[in-house]
Design a protein that fits this description.
By secondary structure, the chain is mostly helical. It contains nine helices and no strands.
Length: about 190
């Protein structure tokens, strides 16, 4: 009985602290090794064939990928980064502080509408005279100044965050990119 309790405590500690767990690190390293080897084979094929499809695909650093996988596991444990923050940090094309951007990714439609209203109100209150613009136009101005994208793109890339899609991006993203690289190689060789 005591052994079982000890095993449960150890498993709980591993889930709560995946970066410190040798077992979790080993599992993450296995996944990272598979992805790294697949990508390396594709890049080696390119070099041997003398092709450069210019698709932005490079080799995957195994240690970096291992850490990314552990970050994902950490997000599911108590006190870990939320999934939205891990996704923003690793996958989101909008540049900015992952913790701040994940706040917007977690918003529902009503909260997002209120956020647009708050930004518009703040801009109107900071200016002398009337501003002839809609709340959305003012929000677009704010978002483009702060993050360099339109409010429409911000909504597509950040606010439309879906946990299931994020998990797929985080877990299968490198494999999908490798598949796309194989297709690019095939096209370049045809």
């Amino acid at each position: 009985m005591m052994d079982k309790i000890k095993q449960i405590r150890e498993a709980k500690h591993e889930i709560e602290n995946p970066h410190e767990s040798e077992r979790m690190r080993a599992l993450a390293a296995i996944l990272a090794e598979i992805e790294t080897a697949q990508r390396a084979a594709v890049i080696d094929q390119r070099e041997a064939a003398g092709i450069d499809p210019d698709d932005g695909r490079d080799r995957i650093d195994k240690e970096t990928r291992t850490t990314e996988i552990l970050d994902l596991v950490d997000g599911y444990g108590p006190g870990g980064k939320p999934l939205s923050e891990v996704w923003v940090d690793e996958c989101c094309p909008v540049d900015g502080d992952p913790a701040a951007l994940s706040h917007y990714a977690e918003m529902n439609e009503s909260e997002w509408s209120k956020q647009i209203e708050r930004w518009a109100e703040t801009i109107r209150n900071s200016q002398a005279g009337e501003i002839d613009a809609t709340d959305r136009e003012l929000a677009d101005h704010h978002v483009s100044k702060k993050w360099g994208v339109s409010v429409d793109r911000f909504e597509q890339e950040v606010v439309a965050f879906e946990p299931a899609d994020a998990l797929e991006d985080l877990l299968a993203g490198p494999s999908k990119e490798t598949e796309q690289a194989i297709e690019a190689n095939t096209e370049a060789l045809a």
